[in-house]
Amino acid sequence: YIFEFSNQNIQNMEEIVSIFKRSQWIDMPTRFPHVVIGSASSLDSWKTAVVSADYSNIAAIMDTLARGYSINWREAAEYWKRSSITSLTDFNRLVSCWPPAVLHIVPSNLKLLVKLSPNPNIALCVIDQY
Q1: Rg (CA), the chain
Q2: Using an 8 Å Cβ cutoff, are 71 and 65 in contact?
Q3: 24: which residues sit within 8 A by CB, 6+ positions away?
Q4: What is the mean pLDDT of residues 19-48?
Q5: Is the pTM of this model over 0.70?
Q6: What is the separation, in whole angstroms, between the first and last Cα of the chain?
Q7: Contact, 53 vs 61, CB < 8 A?
Q8: In this predicted structure, what is the pLDDT of residue 120?
Q9: How far apart are CA 20 and CA 15, in angstroms?
Q10: 70-110 pLDDT, tens per residue?
Q11: How far is the C-alpha of 93 from the C-alpha of 72, rounded, in Å?
């Protein structure tokens, strides 16, 4: 097997396994998964691994995820801190597709979405993820 990681071909199976054991998969494994090795704490080296999006448009985020790409969840969380999510329908669709999205919402906004939603899906995602 040849495994390419960070533009380096690795042919030793033990080295490949070692890399995966040290990896933390942050987002769903898609065409460009967001992977952190060891104690990396910055997305600077992962600019090609995530896609920036219009975080006010959850339908566009859903399209991005459906195409198999990972959005920049850090940017999304920063946006949603400044601008609350108000569409229950759109947010319910987002967490139906990717439940860890609830981890990127400000707790006060998340509480309101859970409280106002007639569908228990959002509440169940919150319970499952926290």
Answers
A1: 17
A2: yes
A3: 35, 36, 37
A4: 53
A5: no
A6: 38
A7: yes
A8: 93
A9: 9
A10: 888 889 999 999 999 999 999 999 999 889 999 999 999 99
A11: 18
Q: How far apart are CA 125 and CA 99, in angstroms?
A: 6
Residues 6 or more apart whose CB falls under 8 angstroms from that of 42 comprise: none
Q: What is the pLDDT of residues 40-76, one digit of tens each?
A: 444 444 444 577 889 999 999 998 888 878 888 889 9
Q: Which residue has the higher pLDDT, 69 or 116?
A: 116
**By the 8 A CB rule, do 38 and 45 touch?**
no
122 Cβ contact partners less than 8 Å away, ≥ 6 residues apart: 88, 91, 92, 95, 102, 113, 114
68, two tokens: 């198999």
Please give, one letter per residue, the 3-state secondary structure of the chain: CCEEECCEEECCHHHHHHHHHCEEECCCCCCCCCEEECCCCCCHHHCCCCECCCCCCHHHHHHHHHCCCCECHHHHHHHHHHCCCCCHHHHHHHHHHCHHHHHHCCHHHHHHHHHHCCCCHHHHHHHHHC
